[in-house]
Specification:
The protein is of the alpha/beta class. It is built from 3 helices and 3 strands; from the N terminus they run H-E-H-E-H-E. Helix content is 46%, strand content 20%. The N and C termini lie far apart (31 Å).
């Protein structure tokens, strides 16, 4: 069962995504984009040094920034 099905079953409208600087953080950035495109209100938190985000995670991070999405750094 994918995350969208679980969210839809619970009629959730707001989601919080917590990301680190590694590949799992990149998955969180990508999920954020998909959720927002599908009409969800998403808050994104980055835990770690932004300069350490590399590879695919960096690409997804930059996409969010280019979309004007605020990423809160903790």
């Amino acid at each position: 069962m994918g995350p969208f099905k679980r969210i839809k079953e619970r009629d959730i409208k707001r989601v919080v995504i917590v990301c680190g600087v590694g590949n799992n953080g990149g998955d969180g950035f990508a999920l954020t984009r998909l959720l927002m495109i599908n009409g969800y209100v998403v808050s994104v938190y980055l835990f770690g040094d932004e300069s350490k985000i590399k590879g695919d995670a960096r690409i997804n991070y930059e996409i969010l920034l280019n979309m004007g999405i605020s990423i809160k750094n903790k």
